[in-house]
Specification:
- By secondary structure, the protein is mainly alpha-helical.
- 74% of the residues lie in helices and 1% in strands.
- The protein has a two-stranded antiparallel sheet with strand order 1-2.
- Helix 2 runs parallel beside helix 6 and helix 6 runs antiparallel to helix 9.
- The longest helix has 30 residues.
- The protein is globular and about 55 Å long.
Length: 407
């Protein structure tokens, strides 16, 4: 009992528990989606494209999460968001038609993106700066374990036991909801070290962070959309092959993510990000030229491992930020990240039709832009020492959007 009380009073265990339940539920939704919409809802390409576009809209609107702080605490918002995601997943199997799937997808996505926004904010607020990178590595490891557990459950229950889509979706959403209820009643209500701003704003002194977040979103879309598509179209990978690649990625994260977090803390954000971006330039160039399926799979795993190093972008922001800015900026950064998610797939999809290799060279160009930005990070970033070379005038002047007096 004493051990349980010590765990329930520790915000780090609360964050790790939330980091477990999110991928446990979302991975089931994501893994079953394509088969479900084709087999049960008879979706065509246009309908699947619309569903995926609708899924990204809540991410683009993630900045609005800050307005919920006017009525709810961040810990409450995180749990309510998780519950919405679980309910959306649980309902998916019961509504196998176009409008029903659009509605459940939007509900799930609202919960997912609001949770991710608030979870990032709480992590940066509750963790000491010298512990954040290692802890975020632990979070990645926990997420990977949960995803592996979800994929294993799908394989066991659907391939061997023969459960239906409805049962699998209900099981994932139901288990997730039970864990959320336990988090609600079983953990303390943690206090904030500072009152967060409850309005949206941009600050010129965070411009480097905004740029890093934008290009991270652009590169991520190329990895998620076109690298996976290349595996199928060019090399003929089956659903099983792709699933094995995903599982291999999660195993690598489970084994190495905490070590990557400690390594980032040791060498600093600038060096870590420069290594990541130089590596990604090589990976994207490799995608453009690769003709061997096994080498392509290796590039895919290396690509995923490099993305684990994006922890350094978040710890860089933690070191330069006013503590009261964290919640609002987390929402704004998710919106900036999803600008690319809305635009990049459609534009580069047209490029893909005539020159698939050009898509990956564009990805390498995004990595070059990220590298240029990373070189401008100070060796020891702090508030007041956000950049090595200031490229914006009046960089410390806040830009409020909208003005406080209008709120």
């Amino acid at each position: 009992m004493k051990l349980y009380r010590s765990l329930s009073a520790n915000p780090q265990y609360f964050l790790l528990a939330m980091a477990f339940v999110m991928p446990l539920v979302f991975s089931v939704w994501n893994a079953l989606l394509n088969n479900f919409v084709v087999e049960k809802a008879q979706f065509d390409g246009a309908q699947i494209g619309m569903l995926q576009s609708l899924r990204e809209v809540p991410g683009f609107l993630a900045f609005s999460a800050v307005f919920l702080l006017l009525v709810l605490k961040e810990q409450t918002i995180a749990l309510v968001s998780l519950a919405l995601m679980c309910i959306g997943v649980a309902m998916t199997g019961w509504l196998p038609f176009e409008l029903g799937l659009y509605c459940t997808t939007v509900l799930m996505s609202i919960g997912f993106h609001y949770f991710e926004t608030i979870n990032q904010s709480l992590t940066l607020q509750w963790l000491d700066k010298d512990k954040t990178a290692h802890f975020m590595g632990q979070q990645l490891a926990v997420k990977s374990f949960a995803s592996l557990l979800a994929y294993g459950a799908i394989w066991l229950l659907m391939e061997w036991v023969g459960v239906s889509y409805i049962t699998m979706y209900m099981l994932a959403g139901g288990v997730g909801l039970l864990i959320v209820i336990w988090l609600w009643v079983g953990f303390d209500k943690f206090t904030q070290t500072s009152v967060q701003h409850k309005h949206m704003f941009l600050r010129r002194r965070y411009w480097l962070y905004y740029g890093l977040v934008f290009f991270s979103g652009a590169r991520r879309q190329i990895f998620m959309v076109f690298a996976s598509f290349m595996m199928v179209e060019k090399f003929g990978y089956s659903v099983g092959d792709i699933s094995l690649l995903f599982m291999l990625n999660y195993v690598f994260n489970l084994l190495f993510a905490p070590k990557i977090g400690r390594w980032i803390h040791k060498i600093g954000e600038q060096r870590a990000l420069c290594i990541e971006y130089v590596g990604l330039i090589g990976v994207f160039a490799g995608y453009a030229w690769v003709e061997n399926s096994q080498l392509a799979a290796s590039l895919y795993v290396i690509d995923h491992l490099f993305f684990a190093m994006a922890i350094a972008v978040k710890t860089y922001f933690q070191k330069i930020a006013d503590h009261k800015d964290i919640a609002s900026t987390a929402g704004v950064s998710f919106t900036i990240n999803h600008i690319a998610a809305v635009v990049i797939p459609a534009l580069l999809g047209v490029v893909w039709l005539t020159s698939p290799s050009s898509v990956f060279f564009i990805g390498a160009g995004f990595a070059v832009c990220s590298l240029v930005l990373a070189l401008n990070i100070p060796v020891q970033p702090t508030r007041g020492n956000e950049v090595r070379m200031n490229m914006l005038r009046w960089a410390n002047t806040p830009v409020e959007m909208p003005p406080k007096e209008h709120l």
